[in-house]
Amino acid sequence: MKKQETEPDFFEQEAGLLDTVGPKAREIIGQDCSMVSACAARPYPLVVDRAKGSVVKDIDGKEYIDFVAGIAVMNAGYSNPEVKAAISTQLEKMVHCGYGDFFAEPPLKLAKKLRALSGYSKVFYCNSGAESVEAAMKLALWKTKRQNFISFYNAFHGRTLGALSLTCSKIRQKEHFPSIRTVHTDYAYCYRCPMKLDYPSCGIECAKQIENLIFRKELSPEDTAAVFVEPIQGEGGYIVPPPEFHREVRKICTDNEVLLVADEVQTGCFRTGPFLAMENFEVRADITCLAKALGSGLPMGAMLADSSLMDWPPGVHSNTFGGNLLSSAAALASLEFLEKENTENHVRELGAHIRHRLRELQENFPCIGDVRGLGLMIGAEIVKPDKSIDPVRRDRIIREAFKDGVLLLPCGDSVIRFSPPLVMTDEEADLGLDKFEKALRRATR
Questions:
Q1: Which pLDDT band holds residue 173 (cuts at 50, 70, 90)?
Q2: What percent of the chain is predicted at pLDDT more than 70?
Q3: H/E stretch holding 63
Q4: What is the sign, positive or negative, of the torsion defined by CA atoms of 68, 71, 76, 82?
Q5: Which of 96, 284, 394, 397 would bridge with 443, disulfide CB 3.0–4.6 Å?
């Protein structure tokens, strides 16, 4: 491709990677970078065209094993025939009705399925994860008549202004934006314990800080509306807390009459095995936020709570596209498919297999400092010889894997995430991990 004077820096920065993609991809990337906001971050020059199951094909026909799933969205797999059929059937009827003002059957059917899977009696529909978090913030403020929140370091809850107040994963995300009063505290990041303690002798002191430090020094519980927590921290580094952590946070919230909100945007919809990741910890939040995989690729978010909590009157909160008919049909078909296919057991078994393979690699590649995860939400933390973070090598590994036809994404300071479609087969996982090993060898020479 002939270089244009307006060609973006992306071409110069990623020259080696661009040699691995075809001419159609390079043409589209050049046009995209000249017209689309630069705040969209792309780790490598992938131009997708089509996909099926766990395999993505780019615009020039090259195939990739996908450990990304559209950022933990395509749980039922790409081009799932049952989801496609549900979308086509609804498309023949109508796409949108303004569900906030009228009634329709598809969102109701989905609400019944969500109630059956989660146990919550009420649902509020929206369009994304950030919107579901915003709705939960508003509900907590409305119900408690309190003004403050507690969240955790390394947390990611979205980039809209309210949700951004809870987010605390990267300073760049928060610079120049005002916040709703939120106090952050330590998450149970045992591999790099911020309190320099060891589990289990620590007694889950990180969770106890809410009561022992924040409620004494920062916020009165009488002024605190809710604690927002991810069952597993996603963008913060796929950090899995010990089982006692969420139980202790739940106890503190109950004892102090503070609401507990679980952000299951990335962990929900069978990603870790059960429908909700909090089930792994035998904890039930007062409010749960869903999105990502819920719509099976179409914009869809939901906030779940019991009717005793979600009893706000008409008009307090609403939106135009929440409960969209097409998205509702896709979501219901996806959940029914995942439930029918005994996804929970498959996710547990394949997740254990991938973690085992990664731990075998860890023995031969000291740069893999930690392997952690639940189900198919797995992180490999890349480190230097002194165990400090190594984001440069992490990013190099991801780029080398891309060259070999494997899609991976970073998270946290120095982590590679593995979050494939839940329909990935053992054979696909092993092929992808074999290619990942080759990428490791090249990146660690």
A1: low
A2: 94
A3: strand 63-66
A4: negative
A5: 397
Residues 256-269 as b/e (b if ≥16 CB within 10 A, e otherwise) read eebbbbbbbbbbbb
Residues in the chain: 445
DSSP β-ladder status, 415-418 and 409-411: antiparallel
CB burial readout 25-62, b (16+ within 10 A) else e = bbebbbeebeeeeeeeeeebbbbeeebebbbbebbeeb
Full-model pTM: 0.94
Element (H, E) at 215: none
Instruction: Find all residues with CB under 8 Å of 114, minimum gap 6, and list them.
Output: 120, 123, 290, 302, 304, 335
Token reading at 334: 């996806």
383 near 390, Cβ under 8 Å?
Answer: yes
Q: What is the DSSP letter of 214?
A: I
Confidence label for 1 from pLDDT (cuts 50, 70 and 90):
very low
Domains within the chain, CATH numbers bracketed: 46-78+343-443 (3.90.1150.10), 81-340 (3.40.640.10)
Beta strands across the sheet bearing 48-52:
48-52, 55-58, 63-66, 406-407
Q: Is 224 helix (H, G, I), strand (E, B) or coil?
A: strand
The region that residue 373 occupies, defined by phi over 0 for left and psi between -120 and 50 for alpha, beta otherwise, is left
